[in-house]
Here is the input.
Amino acid sequence: MTEIMKKETVYKLFSKIPTIETERLVLRRMKPSDCHDMYEYASNPDVTRYLLWEPHKSWKQSLEYLEYLQTRYRVGDFYDWAVVDKKRSKMIGTCGFTSLDFGNNAAEVGYVLNPAYWGRGIAPEALKRVLYFAFMELNVHRVEARYMVGNDRSRRVMEKCGMTYEGVRRSSMYVKGSYRDIGICSILSEEYILNR
Here is the structure.
């Protein structure tokens, strides 16, 4: 049997979350100094339309959130990276694991991106690197991603990264006052390795 992801190892690893790179991006720990960059996209209703949270009302809200995350990073139970444009050294979004299921050796991924960078292949570039980390470094068996039905852009990102559409869980989440249909895509370790 393949080595599986262990909680103690993961917490230790993410307590000093590693910086990883792609051709155009640096994925690193989020910092309070990212607050203005985060607010730039987190305050945009177009960005949060299909997300679980409301737009940030001020850069101070972004700052408070980033300060809170520092405690989560220290414990090692927060698995999300800042996505940074290498050329501009600007935080343009986040990408990482929204949850890790240690009992089933699985992970869920999520991402959000500044709309100024939409349509450039940035989200797939970041997600592909996170998938590599999941399968090659954490040894997970399955990675899934969820999206609210209607968010076709997000589903395309998943499929560009080799994920398979599995279907829709009807009215499975109550978000911002209404029940939403949630689509699911996934990729298994053997599929990832076969298609690398």
Strands lie at 20-21, 25-28, 79-85, 90-101, 106-113, 142-148, 164-175, 178-188. The two ends are 21 Å apart (CA to CA). The longest helix spans residues 59-75.
